[in-house]
Amino acid sequence: MLEHDEQQGVTAPRAAWELGAALADHSVPVDDRDGVAVAQFLRMAADAWAATKTEESIDRALERVRFLRLLERGAGVARRDAVGDARGSEASWARVGWSLNTSRQSAYERFTG
Fold it and tell me: How is residue 85 annotated by DSSP?
C-alpha cells in the first residue's frame, strides 16, 4: 500500500497520493477519513523514527511499535486533559461522549473513575 524506500522509509509523496486517492473515490467511509489520514501520518512518522534508530528490519519494526506506543500513551493523557477542559467549559457528558464516539454514560464512567 505505501511506497517504501529502504534508505528513507515510507515516502511521503506516494503515501499522500494513495491517501488522497482513497478519500477521493470514497473507498474510505466518511466517518473514518480523519482516522485514516492520522493513521497514515503516524505510520510515516513511526517509520522515520525507526529509520533514525536502526537499519535492521526487525529492530526497525520494533522501534515503530515503541514509537506508536509512546504516541498512544501521550494521546491518552492529552485526551484526558481535553475532556477535563470540555467539562470545565460546561460541555455535557452527552457532547463529550459524542466527541469520543461513545455514549454519555461510557464517557462519564471512563473519565470520572
Answer: H
Helix axes 57-88, 104-112, angle to 10 degrees: 100
Copy the grid coordinates of residue 5.
524506500
The string of pLDDT tens digits covering residues 81-93 is 899 999 999 999 9
Task: Calculate the CA dihedral of residues 4, 50, 47, 3 and round it to 10 degrees.
Answer: 0
62-75 confidence digits (pLDDT tens): 887 888 888 888 88
Closest of 9, 4, 37 to residue 21, by C-alpha: 37
Who contacts 93 (Cβ-Cβ below 8 Å, separation ≥6)?
87, 104, 105, 107, 108
Q: Tell me which residue of 22, 24, 56 sits closest to 39, measured CA to CA.
A: 22
Burial label, 41 (beta-carbon count in 10 A; 0-12, 13-18, 19+): middle
| Full-model pTM | 0.57
Cα–Cα distance, 6 to 11 (Å, whole number): 10
